[in-house]
Amino acid sequence: MLVRAAPTLLLLFCLLAMAGCDPAKRVPAGRHLLVKATAKERANQVNQGDLSTLMKQRPNKRILGVRFYLAVYNFPDPGSIARKKARKLERNEVNNQRRIAKGRQPKEVGRTTGEWMREVVGEAPVVFDSALTDRTREQMLLYLLREGYFEARVTDTVEFRGRKAHVTYYVDAGEPYLLDTVTYTVDHGGIHEYVERTWEGSLLKPGDRFRAEHLDAERDRITGILKGLGYLYFTREQVSYDADTAVGDRKVKLAMRITRAPGRPPGPLWGTPEGTIFYLDKMTVDA
């Protein structure tokens, strides 16, 4: 039992020893190690995990509460690594000369132990970057707008404690906007008929929260139907939307338009490749 427990005890000892080291020891002077980044949504309306994935900077990973990979990165001394690397290069050059003299191929010099610890196992310190904090705040706001929270606000605070930085994002989503009415217009009689026939399967329902991903999914639904009917050149770019919030009371009048794709000459779909059904002419089978 003692023999089996030894590796575990050794690992725990190493983790505890590393925990006592200064995690910011390899952070450049005047900079700060990011040790905490959290998002707080006031009304608990937004998925916390989604907000976390939008962060452009996250602290170094932990194992059993210890920044193990950062500790491995910090452990070797850069000056010592450089000296050992120089000696290794010198020895390798001498050995390569011997190999060449014997008609053998020279070898590349490998990593030192310190380089292996830093480059393979270790994780460089996450140094706080205010520009990435700004980008995170912008991405969170964009995400909220796409989720129908048109009055959302995102702010942040940064607290410096010694050489460490704590970032907190405060999210005030506000009330979501709901779909009031959903209409569609199609400048092609045949396509209009197919859209009307399948409209009950639309993913856009009055009363639902406005969500950009549902708009995208509806584009894909209509495109899939039309391609299955033989409109081989029809693309999702031909399905566009106008969202009108002027109705008030956090309601959205959504109008879907099926027209020529952006960049195409103006005019109806009729007679264009996108508005034409293609039929199977003949089929050959190579045996």
How many DSSP helices? 8
- What overall geometry do the principal axes of the alpha carbons give? flat
Are there runs of 5+ residues with pLDDT below 50, and where?
Answer: 1-10
Strand order of the largest sheet: 1-3-2
Structural class: alpha/beta
Order of helices and strands: HEHHHHHEEEHHEE
Gap between N and C termini:
67 Å
Strand content: 15-25%
Reported for the largest beta sheet, the result is: 3 strands, mixed
Explain how this protein is built.
- The protein has 287 residues and is α/β, with parallel strands linked by helices.
- Helices cover 37% and strands 17% of the residues.
- It has eight helices and six strands, in the order αβαααααβββααββ.
- A three-stranded mixed β-sheet has the order 1-3-2. Strands 4-6-5 form a three-stranded mixed β-sheet.
- Helix 3 (68-74) runs antiparallel to helix 5.
- It is flat, with a radius of gyration of 30 Å.
- The termini are far apart.
- Residues 1-10 have low confidence and may be disordered.
